[in-house]
Structure to design on (401 residues):
C-alpha cells in the first residue's frame, strides 16, 4: 500500500508540473508556426524554425476527417478534429530537419527545418 | 486495407493482451465469477474513448491544446501505478498460490483486489482507445468509394484480430500452472510497466516539461519501432529505436525497483542458501 501511495504522489507531481508548464507556457509565448491541413496535405509542406528554442505548431484542419499530427521521435501525437485548430508544443530542436506526418493518412507530411 | 488492419491491430493488441491476462488471472485465483469487474472496466473505457473522441471534436482553445496531454499522462502514470501494485501483490502471494492452494487467498483480500483489476482493464483499453475511435471514424467518412470500404473493413478486421489474440492469451494463461502463470505475467507486467513509465517520461520531455530529449543512440537501422515487429515490441516491452538518456534511466530504475517488489522470493531464497535451510521442504514441493 505504501507503494501505491508513493506512486500516486509521483502522479500528482507529474500532473502539477503539466499544469504549471501550461501556465508558464502561456507566459513566455514561444514562437508559433501556422500549418493548415487541406485536401489531405499540409500547407506549407516545409517550414523553418529556430534551432534550440521550443515552438508551438498551430494546426488547422480544413478537411472533413480527423487528422493526427505525429512525430514519434519528438513524442508529438495530437488529434486535430475536422474544422478545428490545435496548438502543439514542441521541445527545442537541434539543427536538422524533422518530418511530421498525419498518422491517419501517412501520405500527408510536413518537413520542419530547425536552423 | 492492409495498412488500416495493421494500425488497428497494433492499437488493439496491447489492450487485448492485458484483458486476456486479467481474465486468465481471475480464473487462476479462482474468481471467475468476478469477470464482470473487468468487463465493466473495459466497457467504461470504450465509452470514455468515444466521449474523448467527441470532446476533441467539440472543444477548442486551451482545453483542447493541453487536455489530451494531461489525460494521456494521467492514464500512462496511472497504469504504471496500477501494474506495479498488481505485480507487487502477485509477488507477495505467489508463495501462497503454489501447489493448488488458490483458495487460501482470503476472500476479503481478493475482493479488495478486484476493483483494481477493473481499473487495469480500464486504463489498458482507454490508453489507445480514443485514438482508435477517431481513426475508425476517419475511415467511416471515406465510405463513399470502394477503397474507403476496404479500409474500414481492414480496421474492423484489425479489431477482431486483436480480440482473437486476447482470447488466445486468456486460453493459454488459464491452462498454465498457477506458478508458471504468475512468473510469466509478473515478468511481462514488469517490462510493460517499465516501457510505459519510460514513455511517460519521454512524453514529458516532448512537451518540454523535462529537459533533454535528444536520442542517445539510434537502432532504427536494425529494428524500426514504426514497423510492425518494432511497433509490437514498442507496445510490449517499451522498445525505442532512439531513446533519450532520461528514458533509458527511467526504464532501468523502474526495472530495478520492480524486480525487488515483484520477485521478493527470488531475493529471499538467495539469502537463505547461505543460512540455515528453512522451508526447503516447502520449495521442493513445488
Amino acid at each position: 500500500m505504501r507503494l501505491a501511495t508513493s506512486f500516486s504522489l509521483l502522479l500528482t507531481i507529474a500532473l502539477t508540473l503539466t499544469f504549471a508548464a501550461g501556465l508558464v507556457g502561456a507566459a513566455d509565448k514561444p514562437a508559433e508556426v501556422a500549418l493548415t491541413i487541406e485536401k489531405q496535405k499540409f500547407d506549407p509542406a516545409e517550414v523553418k524554425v529556430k534551432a534550440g528554442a521550443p515552438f508551438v505548431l498551430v494546426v488547422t484542419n480544413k478537411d472533413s476527417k480527423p487528422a493526427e499530427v505525429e512525430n514519434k521521435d519528438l513524442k508529438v501525437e495530437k488529434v486535430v478534429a475536422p474544422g478545428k485548430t490545435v496548438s502543439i508544443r514542441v521541445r527545442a530542436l537541434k539543427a536538422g530537419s524533422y518530418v511530421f506526418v498525419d498518422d491517419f493518412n501517412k501520405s500527408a507530411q510536413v518537413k520542419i527545418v530547425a536552423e | 486495407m492492409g495498412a488500416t488492419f495493421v494500425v488497428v491491430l497494433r492499437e488493439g493488441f496491447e489492450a487485448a493482451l492485458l484483458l486476456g491476462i486479467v481474465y486468465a488471472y481471475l480464473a487462476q485465483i479462482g474468481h471467475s465469477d468476478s469477470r464482470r469487474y473487468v468487463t465493466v472496466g473495459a466497457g467504461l473505457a470504450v465509452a470514455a474513448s468515444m466521449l474523448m473522441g467527441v470532446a476533441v471534436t467539440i472543444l477548442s482553445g486551451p482545453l483542447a491544446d493541453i487536455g489530451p496531454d494531461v489525460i494521456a499522462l494521467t492514464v500512462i502514470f496511472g497504469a504504471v501505478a496500477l501494474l506495479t501494485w498488481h505485480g507487487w501483490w502477485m509477488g507477495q502471494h505467489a508463495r501462497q498460490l503454489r501447489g493448488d492452494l488458490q483458495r487460501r487467498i482470503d476472500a476479503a483480500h481478493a475482493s479488495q483486489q478486484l476493483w483494481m483489476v477493473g481499473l487495469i482493464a480500464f486504463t489498458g483499453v482507454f490508453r489507445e482507445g480514443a485514438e482508435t475511435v477517431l481513426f475508425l471514424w476517419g475511415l467511416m467518412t471515406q465510405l463513399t468509394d470502394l477503397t474507403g470500404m476496404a479500409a474500414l473493413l481492414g480496421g474492423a478486421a484489425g479489431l477482431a484480430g486483436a480480440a482473437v489474440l486476447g482470447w488466445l492469451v486468456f486460453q493459454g494463461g488459464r491452462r498454465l500452472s498457477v506458478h508458471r502463470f504468475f512468473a510469466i505475467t509478473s515478468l511481462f507486467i514488469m517490462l510493460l510497466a517499465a516501457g510505459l513509465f519510460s514513455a511517460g517520461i519521454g512524453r514529458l520531455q516532448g512537451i518540454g516539461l523535462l529537459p533533454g530529449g535528444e536520442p542517445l543512440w539510434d537502432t532504427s537501422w536494425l529494428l524500426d519501432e514504426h514497423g510492425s515487429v518494432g511497433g509490437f515490441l514498442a507496445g510490449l516491452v517499451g522498445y525505442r529505436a532512439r531513446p533519450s538518456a532520461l528514458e533509458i534511466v527511467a526504464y532501468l530504475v523502474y526495472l530495478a525497483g520492480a524486480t525487488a517488489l515483484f520477485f521478493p522470493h527470488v531475493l529471499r531464497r538467495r539469502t537463505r542458501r547461505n543460512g540455515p535451510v528453512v522451508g526447503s521442504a516447502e520449495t521442493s514441493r513445488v
Remarks:
- The radius of gyration of chain A is 16 Å.
- The mean pLDDT of chain A is 83.
- The domain at 30-114 of chain A is CATH 2.60.40.420 (Immunoglobulin-like).
